[in-house]
Amino acid sequence: MSSRTCRKGHGRVHLTWVDERCVPAGSEDSNRGAFLRLGLPPPGAALPLWADDDADPARAVERFEREFMRTFAGALDVALLGLGEDGHVASLFPGHPALQAAGAAVFVADSPKPPARRMSLTLPVLRKTPLAVMMAAGAGKRAALRRVTRREAGLPTTALAYLVIATDIDSEGESDE
C-alpha cells in the first residue's frame, strides 16, 4: 500500500495499493480485502488497482491510470512495500516483462506466484517515489533480503530512490517469527 498527501488537498491522505491480485475484495487473496477485513477503512480517497466490477484488465489499467493521475498527480510521496522470497516488490518480479512497463499501472497475466492475474504500479512510478519503506518479515525472506542489501542487479528495489528496510531478521540470521 502507498500513501500520498495531496499538496492541494489541505493535508488529506490518499491511499492506493502498489499491487493487487485480480480477485474480488472478499477473496482471501485480495490485498485491499485484507485491509478492509481488519476494519481499517482508508482515510480520504482510496483508489483500488482492481475493483470488484473490473472484468477487462486493459480497461482496469486505463481506469486506474486516469484516476491515479487525477488523485495523485502521477506520483507517490511514500510507498509501503513487502518483500517476496524471490526478491519481488509489488507485483514486479525479477526478470519479468512487467518491469519494462512504462505507464502508471501494469496488468500481470502470468505472475510466478499465485494467483497469476495481478495489477501493479510500475517501476517508473516507484522509481520516482522519494521514499520507499519495505517490510521483510520471516526467515523465508532472509536470502531475498541479502540480495536487496547487496543491490543485486535485476531486483526491482535497485531502481528505488531511497529505501528504508524494516525487518525481524537479525544480523545473525535469526528472526522473531
From TrEMBL:
The entry's keywords: Hydrolase
GO molecular function: 6-phosphogluconolactonase activity
Superkingdom of the organism of origin: Bacteria
Every Glucosamine/galactosamine-6-phosphate isomerase domain range: 12-158
InterPro entries referenced in this protein's UniProt entry, alphabetically: 6PGL, Glc/Gal-6P_isomerase, NagB/RpiA_transferase-like
UniProt keyword Hydrolase, yes or no: yes
Documented EC number(s): 3.1.1.31
GO annotation terms (biological process): carbohydrate metabolic process
SUPFAM superfamilies reported in the protein's UniProt record: NagB/RpiA/CoA transferase-like
Signal sequence bounds: none
Descriptive protein name: 6-phosphogluconolactonase
The organism of origin for this protein: Nannocystis pusilla
